[in-house]
Amino acid sequence: xxxxxxxxxxxxxxxxxxxxxxxxxxxxxxxxxxxxxxxxxxxxxxxxxxxxxxxxxxxxxxxxxxxxxxxxxxxxxxxxxxxxxxxxxxxxxxxxxxxxxxxxxxxxxxxxxxxxxxxxxxxxxxxxxxxxxxxxxxxxxxxxxxxxxxxxxxxxxxxxxxxxxxxxxxxxxxxxxxxxxxxxxxxxxxxxxxxxxxxxxxxxxxxxxxxxxxxxxxxxxxxxxxxxxxxxxxxxxxxxxxxxxxxxxxxxxxxxxxxxxxxxxxxxxxxxxxxxxxxxxxxxxxxxxxxxxxxxxxxxxxxxxxxxxxxxxxxxxxxxxxxxxxxxxxxxxxxxxxxxxx
Length: 342
What we know:
This is Ldh family oxidoreductase. Helix content is about 45%, strand content about 15%.
């Protein structure tokens, strides 16, 4: 099958054109474009161009405010708040991140609360951005109910992603980002599109029985990773990034949205820490001590999280981003037809 190679900037221009034609304001089109292209650049196909259709469907359904202007409030506390006003979370994060970083350096730690946002894309771009500013960071958010709790038989929890970043001097940061379900929902959708069966243990069907059929899985429920451990971490995300910040939990988000085919609306919590402030007065440089730990991983032949992604990024920067004929056909169709294509 013929592939097309685009420079990163060329793909950004194409994706932003599609999103602006679909109705997003320049603010949101730019922010969403950056995370979509980052997914393709880093070979994270589950968060790449295939997600554009879901973005456009959400706009067409009127479930996101395409020209929302996020509003930031910051007081003397360590909490920064951004009201996304119904828009995508990406622009809200870009507004709040510099203030979050400044507070974290001043106070040692700080939190960014994003309310009333429509979630889109992975969380690793957010913790990576903070790690590049010299901060350790955590990010989490609920989703919509699509995961059965351990021992359960119906959707209750979201995929509830959790991400962490640690800064490194003159090296790519240590970053991980994972759904608390066995796999991201996007992975199941990609299996469905490819006509492939799922691995055992990923999902149950609408009757609560184990299934490897992506269609049955999407109609039923995914499963948490690690059984009761993943279920507990997912519940923690519901409490911290839903209940605690006064926003929707995954069951509430599904009730408000009415479908799992659109991007969910809820909130997001991002925490930032200044390692130098936390280690102040103690012996040793936290950055150097972290490198000793990372070198021990390498000494055992173990791969750090995101190493494969950073390698893909370097290749994309040097050689461009490869897109399949089907992916290019999708992009051309969306550029020509806009919202009529979904």
